[in-house]
UniProtKB/TrEMBL annotation:
Keywords annotated in UniProt: Transferase
PANTHER family: GLUTATHIONE S-TRANSFERASE GSTA, GLUTATHIONE S-TRANSFERASE-RELATED
Name the record gives this protein: Glutathione S-transferase
Recorded GO MF terms: transferase activity
Domain GST N-terminal: 1-78
Matching CDD domains: GST_C_6
Pfam family, one: GST_N_3
The organism's place on the tree of life at top rank: Bacteria
Length: 204
């Protein structure tokens, strides 16, 4: 398998870390959708990261769809997402919050970095900031209620995605989300980043 995308993308990074925790061999190809558009286009004409290329050349994109596929090809004992409905629902809730935080972080970054300042719409930015804050408030509560599970240097998908999201926002929007107000997320981020799979797929 080959994984295309940059590790500063939370979507690429969650897949890379998951591949390692699932013990699936893969090659990481750090190709940017911006600076290497044509190169990425040759792999996937949609130019969407992450893109996973299987051994037979078939491609799959979108981190959630990729992870769903990967869960289907490993033994039940290796899976990172619970099968039992109640536990699975709780995990999907936390994953949804973490991915929402990633999405809102990306929107803020793009608004500041890609749109000319005179064309930025402050009411829109205020709304996205509020959505980002709400996602992390809810994720903090959820993390306190259901602390991350670590088993033999692995964790579950919800906790993995929460850690990746928190690090992404901290790197891209320093000072926007206060770690003091989110002690569980901050503590988990530090712990997660020390896990072998995280160290092997570091935020650049």
């Amino acid at each position: 398998m080959k994984l295309y995308g940059m590790l500063d993308s939370p979507y690429v990074r969650r897949v890379a870390i998951s591949l390692r925790m699932l013990d699936i061999a893969f090659e990481q190809h750090s190709v940017s959708v911006f600076s290497a558009f044509d190169q990425f286009h040759a792999v996937n004409p949609v130019v969407k990261a992450p893109t996973l290329v299987l051994d037979d050349g078939a491609t799959l994109m979108d981190s959630t769809l990729i992870l769903d596929y990967l869960e289907s090809i490993v033994s039940p004992g290796r899976r990172l997402l619970a099968a039992e409905p109640v536990e699975r629902f709780a995990a999907l809730q936390r994953i949804g919050l973490a991915l929402a935080a990633c999405e809102k972080t990306v929107q803020i970054v793009y608004e500041h970095n890609l749109r000319p300042s005179e064309k930025q719409h402050q009411p829109w930015l205020d709304r996205v900031h509020a959505q980002l804050a709400a996602a992390y408030r809810a994720l903090e509560v959820a993390l306190v209620a259901r602390p991350p599970l670590i088993d033999s240097e692995r964790t579950d998908q919800a906790s993995l995605t929460a850690a990746v999201a928190w690090r992404f926002t901290a790197e891209k929007l320093p000072g926007i989300v206060d770690p003091v107000a989110h002690p569980a997320l901050q503590a988990w981020s530090v712990e997660a980043e020390a896990l072998p799979a995280f160290l092997a797929s570091p935020y650049p």
